[in-house]
Amino acid sequence: FNEVTFLVSHNSHANFDAAGNDFMMRLGSNQRDSILDQLNNGVQGISLDIELDYSRVDPDERLRLVHGPIDYGDLGSEMSRNVAPYLELNEDAIVIIYFQTNGDENDEQIRSDIFALLKQVFDKVLVGGEPLKNLTFKYGDERWDSNDWPTILELREANQRLFVFTDRSEFADHPDYGFIHNRAALMENDWRGIQGCMDRYNFGVPNVSFPDRRWSRLYFMNHFCCETGGESLTNIEGNNLLGGGDNGWGRLWRRVQQCKQNNGDFNPNFISLDWVHVITEALELRDFLNKVRDRIGTGQFCQANSNCATNSCSDSGVCQCELSSGVGCSFEETCLRAEPNVCSVVSETDLVEETEEDIQSIEATFYCSSDYETAVSGCNEATKCPNGNDDCRNGETCFAGIDCTPYPTLTPTSKPSDSPSTEPSTSPPTQDPTMENMPSTEPSKTNYNFCGRDFFEAETNCETALKCQEPLGNDICQNSLGAEYTCFGNIVCKKAPPPTVSPTIAPTAVKLDFSNITPTKTIAPSSNPTTGSPIRDPTLSEPTVPPTSHLKWQDPTIESGIQPGQPSLVSGGNDRVPGAIASDSPPSGEYDTGDTPSISQGTTLPPWESWYNDPDRYNSAASRTGCLLLVTVLYVLGSIRQ
After folding, report:
1. Distance between CA atoms of residues 537 and 550, nearest Å
2. Cα(358)–Cα(352) distance, rounded to whole angstroms?
3. Torsion angle of the four alpha carbons 619, 622, 623, 629, in this order, in degrees rounded to the nearest 10
4. Do residues 163 and 220 lie in contact, with contact meaning Cβ atoms separated by under 8 Å?
5. Does the structure show a pLDDT above 60 at 205?
């Protein structure tokens, strides 16, 4: 019996069926259906608040079912109408009743009268002709082993199928009725809300306090929220509730794990819920705990991994099976990557390949550091630890799940040649810095978990929010900020870097070196002066496009490298010469006033024009003297002919 989990309805009697059209009764309700329907729908336990009302004329109606100040009828009628028929129709059913007594705290007479009326109910209400008290479990029965609870089969065979727990120890002093004092047999968490799981009584007490019994203690888990039933209903009934709502896999499974951490690793024997007409996923969880079902539920709406029982929320917002562990799939299935992930039976070969790929992907996120934040920020310098902590130095721990973005590199990807080229480069020099190494203007994206009262707050304030990593995410948030905070994952926090105002690499001036080029063949000068037009080099072809543009150099640091008598090596016009400005007609002065003259493109220049255009010769005193002498000789010859 202690190895089984049962679902219990909270305030089972406070339901719409009993309320009818009474507004106040409906307002105070925590259930929709009658107790009989609740039992038929899958719960096996009911919790009832009882109180004595002396104003009732009929003594049989004085023991009332209440929720606060609201009356929902007498206990005897409810037991006859809804509990006894269920036990009679379901001969193997095990049913739990949990009584909370009100109004007798300071009056022993009231408590005594309540107990007398309670015994009367268990004497008068019949199941198959036998009073209810004959069906109650008696822990002192000699047939039971003193070392352990009886099995479910043994309980059925003994027809002790009704467990009755009460909060009054005096009621347990009469073994014939089988009433069990709750604190003698149970541990229980606080009932106020579903955030955290605090001890109400007996956390850490492993065994019951029955005489001559060394049985393990049972755990009664309260799991319902809010001040009113109406508030809790909005967290249970509706579409797109995170994790399936309070009665869904995401919230209920994670709460079970949280409570186990606090109570000494006890699975719940009884889980008390509001609004058990929404119970499908809670029944699945019960079956999983009872080893009847072999997979954790998936398919719930989610915004973060913490919303899912599998701790895996897909990009499309659906709880999915978890790739590395396979949580969410049955024993014979494997979780395969999809959107969302799917469970499938695969061959042994496929299973090995999938597993190796996943392992390599996971191990690539393992880094050594003193703490998680340092591991994230310094992962490029950190030591990788695919083998866990054994790969780390003293004082460091291996942290997993770190998506490390490498630093940008300034090293060229291509290997330089072994020796320089023997041919000159014919491409123009570049004046602009290369764009490859310019800083990116895209914001950096980093995945973290952040604390917030809701997902929107955690995402909006991610730059200043407290970070929280699993498996202690919620504990970090609640211990640091308060119970209303939750750890939300899969938040992409965008932080745009400030723009840079200068290139990352300075521009490089390029000089073309023609010192190793064999000079073009020239024609020996004639012994007689030439009286006609200058003779061009016959080895050079006519230009295909006449020169029509004049160029002005904008950067004097780039040398032309043009030798006397050599044609320009830059083809294609002005658009191929960086730093040059084209004009449709010659300016008033043919050359710029700067130190570097323009270079006419296209035709082969006469020797004197080549000399004039060459900056090295033009800038030397000898060149200027030679030009002046040549002009003088030509002027004299012209005068003689005239």
Report:
1. 23
2. 10
3. 140
4. no
5. yes
> Using CA of residue 15, residue 20, residue 24, residue 25, what is the dihedral sign?
negative
HSE-CB for 380 with a 13 A CA cutoff: 6
492: three-class secondary structure by DSSP: strand
Task: Report the alpha-carbon distance of residue 180 to residue 175 in Å, rounded.
Answer: 9
Question: Residue type at 379?
Answer: C
Task: Tell me the C-alpha distance between 559 and 556, whole Å.
Answer: 7
Q: What is the pLDDT of residues 497-530, one digit of tens each?
A: 444 344 444 444 444 444 454 444 444 454 455 4
Identify which of 563, 555, 572 has the alpha carbon closest to the alpha carbon of residue 513.
563
Closest CA to 218 of 196, 203, 231: 203
Answer yes or no: are the C-beta atoms of 369 and 334 closer than 8 Å.
no
Q: Which residues contact 633 (CB under 8 A, 6 or more apart)?
A: none
Reported in sequence order, the residue ranges of 253-410 that DSSP labels E, i.e. its strands, are 270-273, 334-336, 342-344, 367-369, 397-399
Contact 187, 205 (CB under 8 A): yes
β-bridge mates for residue 302, sequence order: none
**Cα 74 from Cα 64, distance rounded (Å):** 4
Quick one: CA dihedral 570, 575, 576, 579, positive or negative?
positive
**In the predicted model, is pLDDT for residue 341 greater than 90?**
yes
Residue with token string 């096996």? 44
Q: Give the angle subtended at the CA of 615 by the CAs of 612 and 619, to the nearest 5°.
A: 85
pLDDT band, residue 468 (cuts 50/70/90): confident
Alpha carbon 452 to chain centroid, angstroms: 14
Give SS3 for 220. strand
Q: In this structure, are residues 140 and 175 in contact, taking their beta carbons and an 8 Å threshold?
A: yes
- Tell whether the model's pLDDT for residue 314 goes beyond 90: yes
Beta bridge partners of 45: 8, 96
Tokens 């065979």, residue located = 157
What is the rounded (10 degree) CA torsion for 297, 299, 303, 304? 30
CA 149 to chain centre: 43
Q: pLDDT category, 472, cuts 50, 70, 90?
A: confident
* Residue-averaged pLDDT of the chain: 78
Residue in this structure with the two tokens 């009743």, named with its chain if needed: 97
b/e code 525-548 from CB counts within 10 Å (16+ = b): eeeeeeeeeeeeeeeeeeeeeeee
- Is residue 349's pLDDT more than 60? no
Per-residue tokens: 28 = 């105070």
- Cβ–Cβ under 8 Å, residues 87 and 161: yes
Distance CA 488, CA 477 (A): 10
Sheet strands (E) in 274-392: 334-336, 342-344, 367-369
Structure tokens at 240: 């797109």
Q: Which amino acid is at 494?
A: K
Distance CA 88, CA 130 (A): 10
3-state secondary structure of 565: coil
Query: Scanning the structure block, which residue is given the tokens 């006397």?
Result: 564
DSSP class of 504: S
Does residue 4 have a pLDDT over 80? yes
Between these two residues, 553 and 114, which has the higher pLDDT value?
Answer: 114
Q: Cis omega before residue 340 (within 30°)?
A: yes
- CA distances to 23, 75, 191, 254, 567 from 51, rounded to whole Å, are 21, 10, 20, 35, 115
Look at 464 and 471; give whichever has higher pLDDT: 464
**225 CB-contact burial (10 Å; exposed 0-12 / middle 13-18 / buried 19+):** middle
pLDDT at 346: 75
